């Protein structure tokens, strides 16, 4: 999986002359209205050679709520299309240099404090964070370090109604040393922090790779999950009935918990018409 931050820089630097040519909202055929029980968004980094404007135009046409994993410089573009930033990023250092290491805390506290202030002005709520790699740090020490660091920014997050979300990422594939790699560790972290301004970004793709048992985990721990990401198995491509997981069933399980937040489409399309694949995934999850 491409590094998100690098991928975003590359895509934003590109022009609209990619796979979609001079695509505009006016060029697109009207899309049938979604049921809308699940508020969906899409992550820009997944769609190679698709610009932020192209993704926003498609999101608006399909009836999505917003775009995932977008930093401040692209927030004005989202506003132009009447979309929200459903998961903000840019405060993190890297995925592997996170809150589980005390020497990272001074920089992270500064970066997150600045971002929380910006989000407060814009009215955005969700902000991603990462545990970081273990590098020999045991689970208990890593958890305590995360708690110590995160508690220093949570009062500011509470002031601005921002929720810090730590992403669960499997440690079987690329990020083989990542600490927050199982729901039990993530949920225990939430319990110890004990704040409505800290929750888990439950990435369904990563969770399935790491441990499986998706629906039961959601049912048992939904109060600690503040955001969901999708992705087909086994290779994070489009979700459909050829894939390992039954996403309509998972979406119904999420709805049954009373969840009112967002589900971010975070899969990597294989076909040339990436926006058609996004529409397919959105309708597959529209239960």
List the helices and strands and how they pair.
Blueprint: H1 4-13, E1 39-43, H2 52-62, E2 66-70, H3 75-80, E3 84-88, H4 105-122, E4 126-129, H5 139-150, H6 154-159, E5 163-167, H7 183-193, E6 198-203, H8 204-210, H9 214-221, E7 225-229, H10 247-256, E8 262-265, H11 274-284
Parallel strand pairs: 1-2, 1-8, 2-3, 4-5, 5-6, 6-7, 7-8
Helix pairs in contact: 5-7, 9-10
Could you describe the 3D structure shown?
By secondary structure, the protein is α/β, with parallel strands linked by helices. Helices cover 38% and strands 14% of the residues. The protein is built from eleven helices and eight strands. It has helices spanning 4-13, 52-62, 75-80, 105-122, 139-150, 154-159, 183-193, 204-210, 214-221, 247-256, 274-284; strands at residues 39-43, 66-70, 84-88, 126-129, 163-167, 198-203, 225-229, 262-265. It has an eight-stranded parallel sheet. α9 (214-221) packs parallel to α10. The chain is globular and about 50 Å long. The relative contact order is 0.14.
| Total of DSSP H or I helical runs spanning 4+ residues | 11
Largest sheet: 8 strands, parallel
What is the typical, i.e. mean, pLDDT? 91
Helix content: 25-40%
- Uncertain runs are 5-27
Report the radius of gyration as a whole number of Å.
18 Å
Into which percentage range does the β-strand content fall? 5-15%
Question: Any idea what the shape is?
Answer: globular
Order of helices and strands: HEHEHEHEHHEHEHHEHEH
Counting DSSP E segments of at least 2 residues, the number of strands comes to: 8
